[in-house]
Write a structure and sequence with these properties.
This protein is α/β, with parallel strands linked by helices and 396 residues long. Helix content is 37%, strand content 16%. The protein has helices spanning 12-15, 32-43, 55-75, 88-99, 121-130, 150-153, 176-185, 205-208, 271-287, 289-308, 334-343, 356-361, 378-395, and strands at 20-21, 82-85, 108-112, 133-137, 158-164, 189-193, 212-216, 227-231, 247-250, 255-257, 314-315, 324-328, 346-347, 349-351, 367-371. Helix 3 (55-75) packs across helix 9 (271-287). It starts with 11 loop residues before the first helix and ends with a helix. The structure holds pyridoxal-5'-phosphate (PLP). Pyridoxal-5'-phosphate (PLP) binds at residues 87-89, 116, 118-119, 164, 168, 193, 195-196, 216.
């Protein structure tokens, strides 16, 4: 089946360059409406949001607040539950830093074995700092979470269950509703790392009933520099950073925090990135996530069949992955595969994907990941296939 993308022409970076981009799980290209929104903002003059009485500052403030409303609608939240960060990593660290004063040696944090380092390292450090225990839901040999001991791990000492809403290596999603239900039954709070979920699936955090949700704008066709932390109970949160914009009053010895959302976002906002995020959300909503999902699912299947057609490569991603295919070769290092593909102007990612425990669990140290976005088509997969064919010829 020949798959074409009706949206490819919206992406200048893909149309102006002769490359085949199969690395959207790392970061997405941006469509013209995002680029133009950012350009318009800069051309018309930027102001510092929340910091001035003049039009440019007020315009920047309005732009940020309208982004907050868009993000909230997009994920089924209330805008008063949305905090802007610079990315999923910062959002997760935000929550980890909050727990530092709240937990001790009797407590535990629960994660899974398939986490990105962004949802692993902050918890490791938190546990070192507080003496709490880091418990892990293991990955089974089938690449799915082994939930045998879940109820034991979700005990009254567990302060938080933090897990990925989509794996960046295996491409699978955990049984999210079951996990949240089990956590709620045990009165354990949940944090979902939605970095790999957000651009591929509809999301309603209110229905999911998670406590925290983290994602990055650059994986949603915006630029880098914008991130979101959804927090169900915002009043329970302490500001992560302190600085400009967060206080009503400050003296040399004390400060009084604002009582609105701004107390959570110290320092000048990344206005450019947030203006891009607004435009990206509008763009995606115009297309509709259902159409995106269908397109990506077909592409991912074609990618998988392509990799499987070469005896040198073995697919390691999950059978249900609908946006990426990870694979490895026993004879050829993943970095060599990616470098040769790069010589063919085919962009994929190789290495440990910042998820070393996940790779170890499937018996690997590294692999190659090809991932799709709404702009990919069968032509991209043909180019990828030509690259694989040459690698197989050269190394056999
Ligand atoms: C599952 C997952 N979580 C977190 C992150 C971190 O995202 P960022 O680097 O945008 O903060 C990534 C990035 O690839 C990811 O794939």
């Amino acid at each position: 089946m020949q798959i074409s993308s009706p949206w490819k022409s919206d992406f200048p970076s893909l149309n102006n360059n002769d490359f085949c981009y199969l690395d959207s799980a790392a970061t997405c290209q941006s469509p013209t409406p995002v680029i133009e929104a950012i350009r318009d903002y800069l051309i018309n003059g930027q102001g510092n949001a929340g910091r001035g009485m003049h039009g440019l500052s007020e315009g920047a403030t309005d732009a940020i607040e309208s982004c907050r409303i868009r993000v909230a609608k997009f994920i089924g939240a209330n805008s008063s539950q949305i905090i802007f960060t610079k990315g999923a990593t910062e959002s997760i660290n935000y929550v980890a830093s909050n727990l530092r004063e709240q937990i001790g040696p009797r407590d535990s944090i629960l994660i899974t074995e398939m986490e990105h380092h962004s949802n692993l390292l902050p918890w490791q450090r938190l546990c070192r700092q507080t003496g709490a225990r880091l418990n892990v839901v293991p990955l089974g040999s089938n690449g799915e979470l082994d939930l045998t001991n879940l109820e034991l791990l979700l005990n009254d000492q567990c302060a938080l269950f933090a897990f990925s809403h989509g794996s960046n290596v295996l491409g699978c999603q955990p049984p999210t509703e079951t996990l949240i239900k089990a956590a709620k039954a045990a009165k354990v709070k949940t944090l979902l790392d939605g970095a790999q979920y957000i651009s591929h699936n509809p999301l309603n955090v209110n229905q999911l009933d998670c406590d925290y949700y983290a994602f990055s704008g650059h994986k949603l066709y915006a630029s880098s520099g914008s991130g979101v932390l959804y927090c169900k109970d915002i009043e329970s949160l302490e500001p992560f950073l302190l600085g400009g914009g967060v206080v009503n009053r400050a003296s040399l010895t004390n400060y009084l925090l604002k009582d609105d959302l701004y107390r959570f976002e110290a320092g000048s906002a990344n206005q450019v990135a947030l203006i891009g995020l607004s435009a990206a959300i509008d763009y995606i909503q115009t297309i509709g996530l259902a159409a995106i999902m269908e397109h990506e699912k077909n592409l991912a299947l074609q990618l998988k069949q392509t990799v499987e057609s070469y005896h040198s490569f073995k697919v390691v991603s999950h059978v249900n992955s609908h946006n990426l295919v990870s694979f490895h070769s026993e004879k050829i290092h993943s970095h060599d595969i990616a470098s040769i593909l790069a010589e063919h102007n085919v962009a994929v990612r190789a290495g440990h994907h910042c998820a070393q425990p996940c790779l170890n669990a499937v018996g690997l140290k590294h692999c190659v990941r090809a991932s799709v976005g709404l702009y990919n088509d069968s032509h991209d997969i043909e180019r990828f296939s030509k690259g694989l064919a040459e690698i197989e010829r050269n190394f056999s």
